[in-house]
Design a protein that fits this description.
The chain has about 350 residues and is of the alpha+beta class. The chain is built from 9 helices and 18 strands. It has 2 domains: about 190 residues, Ribosomal Protein S5, domain 2 (2-Layer Sandwich), CATH 3.30.230; about 100 residues, Roll (Pdz3 Domain).
Length: about 350
Amino acid sequence: MKDTQNPRKIGWVNRLSLIGIIIIALVIGLYPLPYYVTSPGSANELAPIIHVKGGDKEQGSFMLTTVRIGKANIPQYLYAKVSDYRELLPANNVRAEDETDEEYNQRQLQMMQDSQHAATVVAYRKAGKKVDIISKGVYVTGIISGMPAEGKLKVGDEIVELEGKPVKTTEDLLKRLADKKAGDKVKLKVLRGKKTLNRTVALEKFPKKLSQNNEKRAGIGITYPVTDVEIKVDPPINIKTSEIGGPSAGLMFSLEILNQLTEGDMTKGHKIAGTGTININEEVGPIGGIQQKIVAADKAGAEIFFAPVSDNNYKDAVKAAKDINTSMKIVPVKKMDDALDYLKKLKTKK
């Protein structure tokens, strides 16, 4: 007598097996790891992003470079391990402990705005134009879990008064809070959108992990406070950066703004990419992901790349350029004048 199996039962078994496989795949694909994965982003022309009223046109282009970043899951982690120019970063190297997605994104966008302000000041001063810098208050871009500010303040709030006196800058706020001790309470005036709020917030000792071995240090519990700065310039300028965050486009912003403010074309017909922060002293600072930005710039057809000297950025950029066998020229910069000196000697592209 032959053994037989119920076709209906076999169908249910197969369905259950398929469901199990789908569930396992979803768990593997969606389960987050304590890492971020970065990869080459894009190189974007700045002329469509930055517009100085009445500014000069250019034949070539200045370009900002970006790095893609996102939370790593298991497949992405494994792929990054075997792929060139994909880097795994521990989560605590990217964002502060207890920092939410909202706080992280707010901090990145705020750093981009600060970068634009510094770049604008540098470029207008270089062009001999008048610049007025107006400090208006202090933005809250992060709140420490369990500290007094939690529940009283929100990311995006702007502190404009402390104890009835105006607060203009981050330095001013921190200096005045430094005179307080744990247990003291302070009265704050805060702007939240179109609303004006009054908040009384106590001071507490910072958690040991944040106290920097100084347990007497106390605060209200905000992180990365940033001065709200308004820049008034003539001619007017408009910068649209969409959702691009971080401070690393400072140098390239300055070059594009200066090029529009002055006669002639500093690009001389070339496609010029680069990266690096900039401060009002015209110093160019290091950034992360320099090798990935080299890859992005090469794919976009850049001929020249300005790389910060500090923190081995320039050395890493040269290494990546050799590795991908690009003809793109890597130029080291410490200050904005290094880039300007190179551009002055650059021959016009035929």
